[in-house]
Amino acid sequence: MPATKERRPRPPASPKKRAAEVLELLQQQQGVPVWRPRYDPTTELVFTILSQHTSDVNSERAGRKLKATFSSWDAVADADPADVAEAVKSAGLSKQKVPRIQETLKRVRELTGDYDLTFLREMPLADAKAWLKALPGVGPKTAAIVLGFSLGLPAMAVDVHIHRVTGRLGLIGPKVNADKAHDVLEPMLPEDDIYGFHVALIAHGRQVCKALRPRCADCVLREACPGRLV
Question: Is the pTM of this model over 0.90?
Answer without folding.
Answer: no
